[in-house]
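Fill in residues.
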């Protein structure tokens, strides 16, 4: 059995994660199957993590305007760091790991084991809210965390920093093509894949939405190999350069009564061979250098294209997640308000009819029609 792994950036709507309100894509009958691993209000989590460092920082400030009253609000107002991050993990999709299917329990078991070990793998990502949802199309895991680093020489000794938190865990980026967060997500996917394998499921990576990127990376690898081969060929050609010393040892003897000289047949053949090799080597070296330059240019172009596509993919994924989250939240509130208004109106009419004993004047068909008109 093979299944894909999804790791998406979430908007971090804790009310949705905790089911404070029920969105239209949620099956309320299955909500009791959800798991809440932990929840702490984010302000409280910030107090727990940073109050001690904040007090030390403020004590060192001689000017009152440089003191920080509330670190959470300070980060919230700033532009350098986010107050927290959310990542959503899912195995497979609604076709092969759907809620209510025979694979539902397997998905739940794997995601549960993954969550149980998440904090151990990530000591610098403080999880303040984590929920496993079994009441939507496919089981999935919401993890909300605050990235922090300790022993900082700048600002608070313990402060918010995703990049440094991941660096403290031994994760570094590789430029635009592989940021710290992308490298971390890849490592978490690998950890999830190991747990899946223990339960007889292989990681199917073809669904990573990276097919085009994979082709480009394959081409880049091919060009890199070609470049290595070309450089090796050039080295071999250079080693085969004719020996100047051997040619210099050829002795030319002057012919009597003429300006011409004579050399031995062996020496003549050596000169001819050397000249032929020289011409061939020069042509071959020129051709190889041209191919080498073209290969280097192609590799550089492929690197730029891959980096650009990865940026677009990340931006599109983030934008889609934001749209889905905002749409769900807004649409749900509108429906709830409309339903509440209709229910209140219907109860009012029913009370008036009951108080005045008027039910006898309404047939079932008229009552239903009247109810539909009011609902509109």
């Amino acid at each position: 059995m093979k299944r894909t792994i999804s790791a998406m950036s979430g908007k971090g709507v804790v009310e949705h994660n905790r089911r404070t309100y029920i969105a239209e894509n949620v099956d309320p009958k299955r909500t009791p199957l959800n798991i809440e691993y932990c929840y702490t209000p984010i302000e409280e989590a910030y107090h727990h993590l940073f109050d001690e460092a904040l007090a030390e920082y403020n004590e060192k400030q001689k000017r009152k305007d440089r003191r920080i009253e509330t670190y959470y609000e300070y980060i919230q107002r700033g532009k350098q760091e986010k107050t927290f991050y959310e990542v959503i993990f899912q195995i497979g999709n609604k076709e092969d790991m759907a809620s209510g299917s025979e694979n539902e329990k397997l998905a739940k078991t794997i995601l549960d084991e993954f969550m149980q070990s998440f904090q151990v793998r990530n000591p610098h990502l403080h999880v303040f809210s984590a929920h496993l949802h079994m009441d939507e199309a496919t089981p999935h895991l919401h993890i909300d965390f605050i990235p922090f680093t300790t022993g900082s020489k700048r600002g608070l000794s313990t402060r918010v920093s995703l990049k440094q938190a991941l660096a403290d865990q031994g994760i570094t980026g590789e430029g635009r093509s592989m940021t710290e967060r992308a490298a971390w997500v890849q490592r978490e996917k690998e950890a999830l894949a190991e747990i899946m394998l223990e339960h007889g499921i292989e990681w199917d990576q073809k669904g990573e939405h990276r097919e085009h990127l994979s082709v480009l990376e394959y081409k880049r690898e091919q060009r890199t190999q070609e470049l290595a081969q070309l450089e090796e060929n050039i080295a071999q050609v250079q080693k085969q350069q004719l020996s100047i010393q051997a040619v210099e040892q050829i002795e030319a003897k002057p012919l009597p009564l003429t300006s011409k000289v004579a050399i031995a047949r062996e020496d003549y053949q050596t000169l001819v061979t050397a000249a032929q090799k020289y011409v061939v080597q020069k042509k071959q070296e020129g051709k190889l250098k041209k191919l080498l330059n073209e290969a280097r240019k192609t590799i550089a172009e492929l690197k730029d294209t891959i980096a650009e596509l990865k940026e677009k993919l990340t931006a599109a994924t983030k934008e889609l997640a934001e749209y889905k989250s905002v749409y769900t939240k807004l649409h749900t509130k509108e429906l709830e308000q409309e339903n509440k208004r209709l229910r209140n109106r219907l109860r009012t009419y029913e009370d008036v009819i009951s108080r005045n004993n008027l039910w006898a004047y309404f047939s079932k068909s008229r009552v239903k029609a009247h109810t539909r008109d009011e609902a509109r």
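The chain has two domains: 2-208, 211-376.
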